[in-house]
Amino acid sequence: MAEKTEIIVNGKQTQVLTTWTVDDLILDLELEGRQVAVELNGQIISRDRWSDQTLGSGDRIEIVHFVGGGEEEKCLMI
Amino acid sequence: MSDDLVIAGRKFRSRLIVGTGKYESFEVMQQALEASGADVVTVAVRRVNLTDKSKESLLDYIDRDRFTLLPNTAGCYTAQDAIRCARLGREAGLSDLIKLEVIGDERTLFPDNEGLLEATRVLVKEDFVVLPYTNDDPVICKKLEEAGAAAVMPLGAPIGSGLGVQNPNNLRIILETVSVPVIVDAGVGTASDATITMELGVAGVLMNTGIAGAKDAVSMARAMKLAVESGRLAFRAGRIPKKLYATASSPLEGVLT
Questions:
Q1: Distance of residue A1 Cα from the nearest chain B Cα, in angstroms
Q2: Chain B contacts of A31, Cβ < 8 Å?
Q3: Which residue range is the domain that position B44 belongs to?
Q4: What is this model's ipTM?
């Protein structure tokens, strides 16, 4: 049985298994097939690396996507 | 005769670029995008809401075969944030176009040109096609061009203000100063504003609030399409000089006496 560990996903403490990759997290969050970008500890993880990149204790993950916007009102990201 | 908007070698038929924010629904946005005739639409990069997954995705309403996505760095207040946002946008959108915003002041949403220049230099090195939102200042526009910006996007008036172009003379000087396309970003409130802007000879207009904030966004989108086309046609046709006194348009010869 795999151990659990805590990471931070979009600013929120999240429990994952130590065996998980980015791909597993994306599946768990039901984001597969969605046009998202993933950043791990400030570094972008390209889609082709999702299945290789494992997650470790304290990792900070940001998952972003596109929202409506143009010439923009004040609205801070991340 | 074709009269495409060309940015870094990419051709677009429409000279109107539209935003995707502030619409009452995705359906209205979708209809407005269609009515605007735009080829390029700008989108913001934000965290995915992980607690409310029921939310539909913006991209479900944008036909990627029809529209080119222009990710933007709206809401970024430092060069570093904007660079980070641009990289994430490229990763999410698989497009190297970026509408670069580094905002310097919350109340006016005027750009921080120092940060903007810094971010432009970094992103150009990373092979982004950088379209920076800036002031209507010929000096900064020239510096951005020298830094490798693919176009410059001076504001016509503050974002969301709907005031129309406030300083047409500066835009004229910018047009003489840079050789990259000049796209007026922000300030257009209604169709006549868009026409007046295009009549100056700028390459294009980018707007969001002017359409999305109208009572009938879809009709305004169509009005803006026609206005941008009209302004462009008038610019190319070459207007008559302004004169103080009348000049008769009917022949004076053969007038009954």
A1: 27
A2: 48
A3: 5-237
A4: 0.88
> Using CB atoms, which residue from B29, B91, B103 is nearest to A44?
B91
CB atoms closer than 10 angstroms to residue B131 = 30
Residue B58 has what DSSP assignment? G
Check which CATH number belongs to the domain holding B66 and give it: 3.20.20.70
Q: How many domains does chain B have?
A: 1
- Chain segment B105-144, per-residue pLDDT in tens: 999 999 999 999 999 999 999 999 999 999 999 999 999 9
Both tokens of residue B255?
């007038």
Within 16-55 of B, beta carbons closer than 8 Å to A belong to 18-23, 26, 29, 42-48, 50, 53
B105 found inside a domain:
yes
The answer to pTM > 0.90 is yes
Q: Is residue B242 part of a domain?
A: no
Residue B251, phi-psi category: left (phi > 0), alpha (psi -120 to 50), beta (remainder): beta
Token pair recorded at residue B222: 């169509």
Q: Is B237 on the interface with A (CB under 8 A)?
A: no
Q: Do B42 and A69 touch (CB under 8 A)?
A: yes
